[in-house]
Structure formats: structure tokens, C-alpha cells
Amino acid sequence: MIHLILLLAIYIWPFGQLLAFTIPGIPFTVYLLDIVMILLTFSLLVSSKRKAIFQTSLSKPLFIFWGVAALSLLVNLRQGIASGLPQTLLYLLRLFIYPSLYFAGNHVGFQKIKTPVIISIIIISLTGLLQYLFFPDMRFLKNLGFDDHYYRLIGSFYDPNFIGAVFCGLSLYFLSSKKYLFSLPLIGLLAFTFSRASYLAFAIGLFYILFTQKKVKMLLLILLLGLIVYLIPKPFGEGVNLARTFSIFSRLDSWRQGITLFIQRPFLGWGYNTLRNVDGSRFQIDNSFIYILATTGLIGFLAFVNLMRKGFMYSTLAVKTLLISLFVHALFNNSLFYIWIMALLWFVLSFDSENSKACKSI
Q1: Do residues 301 and 292 lie in contact, with contact meaning Cβ atoms separated by under 8 Å?
Q2: What pLDDT is recorded for position 360?
């Protein structure tokens, strides 16, 4: 059962926002992936092998972080209610259920799901490419609450920054694994996102490969990415203008607000995902680490950093490269808590030393 639900999650993941729906009476969007994660978590909890499944190198730091996140919400329950308790509890639930991908991946073993993973990557790549070629003007999505994008690859995530992080991380994973035929198309797709945070994350990931594998030729890929970006048609609009400044100042302002909130409640923060209406309006902190500081305080931040440190420590070189790119990207977007990137993060963390041979065979 665990294996089957994990396969379902792998195949659903690349469709992103396309599988979102609303239920009358429920004040938030429901994603099919959320439902599958609940089923996967339940299957792990009722498994006869659950004791062995949950005995991993990351279990203890993960449980500590969960505890701090839940405590931060409990001590700020009034703020949580004011922010909209159903939405707040949903995001806390996601924090608990998405690591089931890590536990299930460890339990099933990568070799058994290698082909579905490749198919999933192909699907997300083709979806993005088809969107860019046939639906380059996606400004109508602004009416649905998304940012308006024109001649940028946004794919099934409806956002160039987040899908850019995925293409960046996966391309670096394959580069580090010496699977260049898998990596090069993803680098091309990355270029079409015009996501500067993703470009920077890619460059730093390449430098990490250079540092660990002594492959100076890898730096040529930065030139390749730059050449593709230069040659791509750029119609009018700020989105394709790499010198745009509005988003920079917007991020700086969100960082300032996040730090201010942290200073006001430094120990346990304002409660996980309780920032709606905290300053009279909903705002997004464009930095996953400042977001954790503001919502769970210094205690939650240290627990989260320790969790990520342990995950990095026990990962293969290819996974470490992918993680570095996600961490860099998370400095400019709240990437690590965007559910499809969170799913990717936890899933690849299951590719630990026990599965290193399987990972090399992809």
C-alpha cells in the first residue's frame, strides 16, 4: 500500500496547480497532492513496520522541529484564530504530512520508483515547455490571485521562481551524477523562467560541483545559460527584464517586516503560519529562513537549521548539490515551504547513503 500511494504522489506532483480545486464551505484551496500526502502518512502510521520506518537519521531532529512549530502555534492561538484558524491548521498539517515522502522513499527504496521519477520529471518539463510555447501570455491568472506573467515559463506551478528552483535543483543533481543528457534540457528550461534567484542558485550549485569534483569545465554551463537567456525573445514587460528593481525592493521590504516581527517575539515567534492580518494585511516573507524566525522564533529556527544540517550531512553528493541550490533559492523566496518544493525536498532526502547506488543508476 505504501508503495502504491508513493507512486501516486510521484505522478501527481508534476501537475501542480492544475489539480487544485475548491470545496463549498471550505475557505481555502485544496490540492490533490495534499490528499495523497494524508493517505501516505496514514499508511505509514498503520504499517506493521512503522517502528522501523520511523527510525531514521532525521527522525529525532524532525520530531523536535514539529514540536516547536506546534508549540509556537499553541502559545499564539489567539493570533492563529485571528489569522484564520482553518488555513493555519492546514499549513501546520502540511508540515507534518509532507515528510512522509522521506519515510516512504526510505522504506520503498529508490530502485523500485526510479522509472516513475523519470516520468514525473519529463511531465513537469513538457508541461512547462508547452505552456511557454503555446500560452506565453499568462497575465489572466492575476484574476485568480496569481502574479501576472508574460513570456516566462511558469508551468504547472503558475510561478517562474518556484518552477525555476525545481529545474535548477534537478539539473544540478544530474550534473553532479554525470547524467548530462538529463541535465542540459533542464538548464534550457531554467533559462526561460527569467528567475534571477534560480539563476544564482544554479551558479552557486555549479561552484559547489567545481569545488567537490574539480570540474572546471562546469563553469561553461553558466555561459551556456547566459547565452540562452540572451537569445530568448524578450517582448515588452518587466518580467523578462533582468535589470528590474521592483521585485528587489519588494523582497527587501518583506525581509524588513519579517525581522521586525522576529524582534517583537524572538523566542517562539508569532506562531507557524499566523502572519495573515498581523500588520493589517496579508504579506509574504520572501525568505524561508526569516519566515521560520518570524513564525517559530529563534527556537524554531535553530531546530529547523539543525534538521536541514542533518539532512545535508547524511545525503549523497548529488543530493547535497540539489539542497544547496534550494537553500540559496530560499534566501529570496519562501521556497522551502511551497508544497511542491517541500515535496521535492523531502523526497530527495530519502536518497541517502543506503540508496546511493540506486541514485547513481538514474
Answers
A1: yes
A2: 43
